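User: I'll paste a sequence; please echo it back and then give the predicted structure.

Assistant: Echoing your sequence first, then the prediction.
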Amino acid sequence: MLAIRGGKVYTISGKIYDPGTVLVEGSKILDVYMGTKTPHGAEVLDATGKYVLPGFIDAHTHLGIVEEIYREEGDDCNEITDPVSPHLRAIDAIYPEDLGFTDALAGGVTTVVTGPGSANVLGGEMVAMKTRGRLVDQMILKNPAGLKAALGENPKRSYGSQKKAPFTRMASAALIREALVKAGDYLRKTEDSKKGKGDSPDRDLRLESLGRVLRGDIPLRVHAHRADDIMTALRIAREFNLKLVLEHCTEGYKVAAELSAAGVMAVLGPIITNRAKVELQGISLENARVLAEAGVVFAIMTDHPVVPVQYLPLSAGLAVRGGLSEERALRAITLDAARILGMEDRLGSLEQGKEADIVVFDGHPFDTRSKATGLFMAGEKVLTF
């Protein structure tokens, strides 16, 4: 048994204990409580004067797919050959020795979502994974964690110059709808064949992937910065009764009421960025605050390598500068991020029975001077005090 005691313990799901103790048994959290008393025989780590939190979750990255240092050699982010490529699988592109994983651990980030980029309107399946491991297959937490789609400038830029669809926003939306209709027909024919009504259709990996979205097994995770693209994503989700997660949601503050009414969740960011393209002209640090006030559930991302993954807590800190409460900002990189992944029963807070992913900082994680001085993943020491 391990006891991390004496620090300021942020459970995220409830109280802050100062001083507090976190007990770990094997890979799980055994208990979290006020005070510094520890069971006889427990290994004790003194966290006095430090901050103890659940491991951070970056809900949108390209970690391991766009490798540090390398350019073309290590860039497997966008398959710019077919705008409708839902059958691509992120797991097949992840390099577990990417230096970005080391950076993630240094920043207290224990879980990430990584996946294809936004060149295609349907780009492939994303995964949720731990940031430490030798083999990708052993690091995976959820595969797939969603199907990546994209609206706005990027698909137009990728294919319009080739005089191919999508040349317009209309075409991007139409290609997504067309693919979903085909997938619906594929599912119906497959089910009918099981009932003896007709032959089973030939296996189609593209339609299988889209079928998971239509059945509600995974969400459609749509890259959408501008308010008009956000509303297009909402229309498509309503039309096909899909689970929708908005990626980036830069102008979400302009349609916060609509997002709240639809019950749509979002992953915001990158926050540490400039107006690098037209659809980022409305970027605002107040976006998170406005969405929080409207009741929208959201996480905060780095979009690594756009912003280095280790700066996830600093990204959340900038949202606080924009008016978001500190409590909500911490939830956006822990429990709310886990909720978007459908993994809030395992990750995102310091609670009895959850996985012992724990980070210890020598100062508040939103302070640029603070460093992670202790890190535990599934109860195993990664960084020691």
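The chain has two domains: 1-54+349-385, 56-347. The two ends are 17 Å apart (CA to CA).
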